Amino acid sequence: MSAGLNKVIIPVAGLGTRLLPISKSIPKEMVPVLDRPLIQHVVEEALAAGLNEVILVTRGGKSAVEDHFDSHYEIEAELERKGKTALLEALRGIAPPELKITSVRQDRALGLGHAIHCAAHLIPSEEAFAVILPDVLVKPQVDDTGCDLKAMVAAFQSQQAAQIMVERVPLERVDQYGIVDCDGAEPAAGECLPIKGLVEKPARNQAPSRLSVIGRYILPGTIMQHLAETGPGAGGEIQLTDAIADLIRQGDAVHAFRMSGRTFDCGHIPGWLQANTVLGREAGLLEPDRGDASV
Ligand code: G1P
């Protein structure tokens, strides 16, 4: 597997049904968390990890996602005229010169694995790439920079093995995620261990562990061949998890990288509210919790 890693696929074609009615006419990736849309948070995360070639897998009706990374001549000219330099720079900083955005279309909603495969022609088989699921906001521990996507890229480069970011979830939530099997072991925060297998949304009594896939992956380009041959799995959808399990069965090394910090599933209302509340307090935008509301 090549050590060069610049590309990241971000699937944004989902309908966002869990965020309705907010997402009826706004793409769910444009829903704000604090002062910026979700998609901007994840593109910033990608850039911080050195992933500057972003491939959006999108669909009709979601052009606002791409537009967010275009320059906006009228606003920029107006801010310049008024001397609002800080705001102007913040706006231009959304798409720094190194950011290259390409988009491809997913014409049918056949699942995450199918969405990733829609970008197969842009990924040479000898090239590794990352995947970020934009519903999930990852906030690594502030003083612990060794546990984020950037650290996972470093782990990929030193180990030359595919990486999947995981966190521990309560047993009652294992049936909502991909769950990895590290042969009974659990990596420490910021470390990785080989995965023996993984399963999408297992029943509680069949989960091989409580380590869940949170939506950050570094995969070899050869996964595209596996995806091409993957049939419908959990929920009747073509699952990325199944193609990765196949890769492991064929002898490829895939590691579970343990993050530490918090994740927020902003693809549904409670997770999105929680992200705004917790991060709003952290950023000093909201008053501290006085114990009269639990988040
Ligand atoms: C997807 C993946 C799953 C992963 C989850 C993280 O599921 O298939 O393995 O654990 O994202 O959010 P989805 O949430 O799209 O059903």
Q: What CATH architecture would you give? A: Alpha-Beta Complex
Order of helices and strands: EEEHEHHHEHEEHEEEEEHHEEH
Radius of gyration: 19 Å
Classified by CATH, the class is Alpha Beta
Task: Tell me the overall shape.
Answer: globular
Number of helices: 9
* Count of DSSP strands: 14
Strand composition percent:
15-25%
Unreliable residue stretches: none
Q: CATH fold name, please?
A: Spore Coat Polysaccharide Biosynthesis Protein SpsA, Chain A
Total count of domains? 1
Which cofactor or ligand species appear? 1-O-phosphono-alpha-D-glucopyranose
Q: Biggest sheet: strands side by side, in what order? A: 5-4-1-6-12-8-13-10
Average the pLDDT over all residues and give the rounded result: 94
Quick description:
Keywords: Nucleotidyltransferase, Transferase. It is built from nine helices and 14 strands. By secondary structure, it is of the alpha/beta class.
Commentary on this structure:
The protein is α/β, with parallel strands linked by helices and 295 residues long. The chain has one domain: Spore Coat Polysaccharide Biosynthesis Protein SpsA, Chain A (Alpha-Beta Complex), CATH 3.90.550.10. It has nine helices and 14 strands. It has helices spanning 38-48, 63-67, 73-81, 85-92, 112-117, 149-159, 223-228, 240-249, 269-282, and strands at residues 7-11, 32-33, 36-37, 53-58, 100-105, 129-132, 136-140, 162-168, 178-181, 192-194, 197-200, 211-219, 254-258, 261-265. The strands form four sheets. An eight-stranded mixed beta sheet has the order 5-4-1-6-12-8-13-10. Strands 2-3 form a two-stranded antiparallel sheet. A two-stranded antiparallel ribbon has the order 7-14. A hairpin with a 2-residue loop joins β2 (32-33) and β3 (36-37). The protein is globular and about 60 Å long. The structure holds 1-O-phosphono-alpha-D-glucopyranose. 1-O-phosphono-alpha-D-glucopyranose is lined by residues 112, 133, 136, 177-178, 200, 212-215, 239-241. Belongs to the UDPGP type 2 family.
